[in-house]
């Protein structure tokens, strides 16, 4: 499981208030993601009337997120498009760069930033805080009416309030946990099949190479699935964020 | 039965939940597909709901995976 270990790249002994603040491979890959996103967006923001290939690619992504916001929140949600777009592109890039076979270059190891709950948890907390701030800013204490759906019988109000409150409070956990576990599980699956390939070749028996070949075919298939999962998880994170924002803005 | 073997059995039981989530996810996409084939013009507008259902069904399987990992690696004994 060494692909999940966070190692210092430089400054292993840097400390701030007694905490180690080394520049780790996690931070390095976040910088790589930032660079990739920057290049991708700068290359496409040409504003030509007839877009070239690159500009069309960027416009496809922005239109995709803008349409999602428009469909889920409505016109009031337009000002949240930049946030959801950044979130979507960051997670998508992080997931895809983590799958990149960088290890063919000796000494380099791909690191999936989103396979750590510290990263996905912070992303989820950011989304949840924005929902809370927007909700209380726009509606004040009226925001609590989110927890009592229209037409609830009077007797049931305490029970429904409790259930809705728990389901509301569990959102940041489910949001962060989903992305983290989906990425971790996929990488563990690839790791397990890769170890099958090596053990099959090392076993020396007649059946070993057959196991290796089958496992290798599985790796190819699972890698294709992982690319799909990387895109779906980024989409689901952005979609759920926009749904929660819809709750805060429009209150059912 | 000692604790180590009980832990492994418990993790295996928790892994059943992952398979059950597979049923749920398959049901979500299967139901969507069977209705989308009947009325393809309405299919695109329901894609958001498709993925909400997918996310809800998948989350429970992922939680089962987390429980298995917690039992195996975090629970001391």
UniProtKB/TrEMBL annotation, chain B:
Q: Name one GO cellular component term.
A: proton-transporting two-sector ATPase complex, proton-transporting domain
Report the superkingdom from the record: Bacteria
User: Which chain regions cross the lipid bilayer?
Assistant: 12-30, 50-75
Recite the UniProt keywords alphabetically: ATP synthesis, Cell membrane, CF(0), Hydrogen ion transport, Ion transport, Lipid-binding, Membrane, Transmembrane, Transmembrane helix, Transport
Q: Which SUPFAM superfamilies match?
A: F1F0 ATP synthase subunit C
Q: What membrane topology is annotated for this entry?
A: Multi-pass membrane protein
Q: Which residue intervals define the domain V-ATPase proteolipid subunit C-like in the entry?
A: 9-71
According to the UniProt entry, its GO molecular function terms are: lipid binding; proton-transporting ATP synthase activity, rotational mechanism
Could you say which residues are annotated as the site Reversibly protonated during proton transport? 58
Q: Note the InterPro entries from the entry.
A: ATP_synth_F0_csu, ATP_synth_F0_csu_sf, ATPase_proteolipid_c-like_dom, F/V-ATP_Csub_sf
Q: Which HAMAP family match?
A: ATP_synth_c_bact (MF_01396)
Tell me the protein family, please.
Belongs to the ATPase C chain family.
Task performed by this protein: Key component of the F(0) channel; it plays a direct role in translocation across the membrane. A homomeric c-ring of between 10-14 subunits forms the central stalk rotor element with the F(1) delta and epsilon subunits.
Identification of the protein by name: ATP synthase subunit c
Record the organism: Sphingomonas chungangi
Q: Gene encoding this chain? A: atpE
